[in-house]
Structure formats: structure tokens, C-alpha cells
Amino acid sequence: MEEKDIIQLFKTVAQNLPFYPFIKKGIEDDAAVLKFGDVYLLWTTDLFIENTHFRWEWMSPFALAYKALAVNISDIAAMGGKPLCFTISIGFPKEFSKNKLQEFLQSLKKTAQEYKLALIGGDTVESEKTVINISLLGTAPKGQIIFRSKAKVGDIICVSNYLGNAAAGLALLERGYNVEDTIFSSLINAQLFPKPEVSLGQYLAQTGLVHAMIDVSDGIASDLTWICLESGVGAEIYQEKLPISPACKEAAKRFKINLLQWVLSGGEDYCLLFTVPASEVEGLKKDIQKKLKKDIFIIGEITKGNKVYLISNGQKEDISQKGFSHFKDKRVWKN
Fold it and tell me: Rounded to whole angstroms, how far apart are CA atoms 150 and 232?
């Protein structure tokens, strides 16, 4: 079974359970949306499991705490929200040292301070390997929440950063490289320390121009497919327009790896993937560059249909759902 099939089973369960008026969005977005009075809350959660999401051979406790919190923050950013507070539940073996835990907590505190997050609870348990679950609550103004489900035919598809860097970083870590290898340090940092696009997400929400948005966690082949499925549309992206860093190209060349595999399916870049009306995209690009000192990249357009196609040299390839899936792929292989 693929991840989307399992999610569909949970949706079937949800259909037979109460759906309260304050629930404005449930399963199949980056976060659930709850309304209490005039306040809209965004609620997300993510799980990190040793030897599935990371290995201690190349992941420090400091990096693990940062990333576990950052990926949740990214979910809130992907809906245009502001992160507020979180809970953390952690399981670890008896041999997990006090020094490791102190390093983990130091990073957790530093990251929470950086993003102005309150820690409001959690749980601890002994387990055979390290397991971390963070649940994060954010907020967004009424009318400014961006869902996956409102992309329109003719929209231009944009991303906010390079694609494939994090996947390349993982490949380097598995080959024994570290952040001190300066030629590839940007790739390793992209894997270990992804930067949630909170300011950009909030700015895009405030413009009212973005029709649909998601963060790139499983690769654009999968994440763009989610937008298309939820919006009832298709998409075409152009290979020559995909933003790829020189370091990523060099790593793929050195290790004789298909660069497009990292770019389309690698995931964990945690940049924002969004759609904008064609008439607005150039003005939006200029405004973002001026106000946030940041570039965004046009990679394709929303079309009729229900498939995601890669266009290259006049040829069309169906890449729908060809990103990472926990139930058919592995980012990390156990020794």
C-alpha cells in the first residue's frame, strides 16, 4: 500500500466520526484548521523514527531536535500561518546518555526561541530506538489561510528555493561526508537544518494572490500531485526551469546519480510550492524580491486533467505521485 491509500483509509474512518462545526479543515492538508470565535488555529504533527528518518551515525542530537521542530513549523508556513506553541513526546533507549539529551534539549530551546514558540507539554517513554513526535499549533487571520485545494487552470506554479539539495545532502551523509566538506556543505545543511519559510508563507497569505500551497516534503512529483488531487486539476512542469544548485549538480555528477531523481522525488527541501494567477506572478516576484530579498522560481502551470507531467525536449512524462512514499521507499537504510 502507498501512503495515499493509507490516508484514504483514515478518511473513511473520519467520515464515521463526529465532525464539529469548529473543524474547518481536517485530513489532507498541511495542517488541520479549527475555528474558535474569531480565532483560526492550525494544528499539525510529525513523527521522527531512528533508522527511518535518521541515523545516529550522521545525525547529532542538536540537528535532530532542530529538524523535528522545523518540519512542523514548515507545515504551518505552508498554510500562511504563524507558529505559536508545541508539545513533544519522545521515546529513547536506556543507553541514551544524559549528554545526548542535554544537547537535544539545548537545540530544542534555541529553535523554539528563534521562532518564538512556547512548549506546553508532552510525554516520555523508554523505547528500543529513538522516536520523536511533535505536535504544533499555529494561527492565521480569517481569509488568509492557504489550502492545497484551490489551484485553478492557468495558474503559474512556483517554488521558493532550490530543489534536490536535501536529497543530495542525505546521499553525502550516507557516504561519510560531513558539513566541513565545504564544496557540499550547503547540501548537508539543507538535509540537517531545513529553513521553514514562515515569513514568505505569511507574506503570500497576506497578498491574497496565492490559490494553493504546500511545502515540499516528499518531492515536487508527489507534493504537486496532492495539490492537483485536492484541486481537481492537472499540471505541467518544465525540466529546464527547475531550480537546481551548482553543488547539487556537482554531487550528482560525482556519484553518477540521476539528478532528476533528487529534484523530483528526493523531498525534504521544505521550500514552498504554490500557484498564482498568470497575470499576477511577475508583480509578485518583484514584490518578494524587494520586500523579502528573496527569489521565487516559475516551474510550470496548472492545466486541465488530473496528472502531473514533466516536459523535457518536447516530450511529456507522467510523474504523478513519483515522489517519496514511506510505504514504498526508504530515505535511510538500516545496516
Answer: 9
- All three cell numbers of 262, joined, read 533528487
One fold for both 16-140 and 156-318?
Answer: no
Query: Which 3 state secondary structure label does DSSP give 100?
Result: helix
Cell of 304: 486541465
Provide the pLDDT confidence category of residue 324 given band limits of 50, 70 and 90.
Answer: low
* Grid cell in block for residue 225: 500531485
Query: Tens of pLDDT along 124-180?
Result: 999 999 999 999 999 999 889 999 999 999 999 999 999 999 999 999 999 998 877
Q: Which of 173, 165, 192 is nearest to 58 (CA)?
A: 173
Q: How far apart are CA 5 and CA 25, in angstroms?
A: 19
SS3 label, residue 57: coil
Amino acid identity of 186?
S
Let me know if domain 16-140 sits in CATH 3.30.1340.10.
no
> For helices 185-192 and 165-174, what crossing angle results, to 10°?
100
Q: Which CATH architecture has domain 156-318?
A: Alpha-Beta Complex (3.90)
Domain segments of the chain: what residues? 16-140, 156-318
Please report, in range form, the residues annotated as the binding site for Mg(2+).
30, 44-46, 75, 123, 215, 218
Q: pLDDT tens digits for 100-114?
A: 999 999 999 999 999
- Cα–Cα distance for residue pair 247/253, rounded to 1 Å: 10
Q: Binding site for substrate: which residues? A: 53, 268, 324
| Cβ–Cβ < 8 Å for 216, 160 | no
Q: Which three cell numbers stand for residue 28?
A: 489532507
18's grid cell: 463526529
Contact between residue 292 and residue 202 where contact means Cβ atoms under 8 Å apart: no
- The C-alpha cell 523508554 sits at 126
**Residues comprising the binding site for ATP?**
122-123, 148, 217
CA–CA distance, 223 with 215 (Å, rounded to integer): 8
**Residue set of the binding site:** 30, 44-46, 53, 75, 122-123, 148, 215, 217-218, 268, 324
Longest dimension (CA), the chain: 59
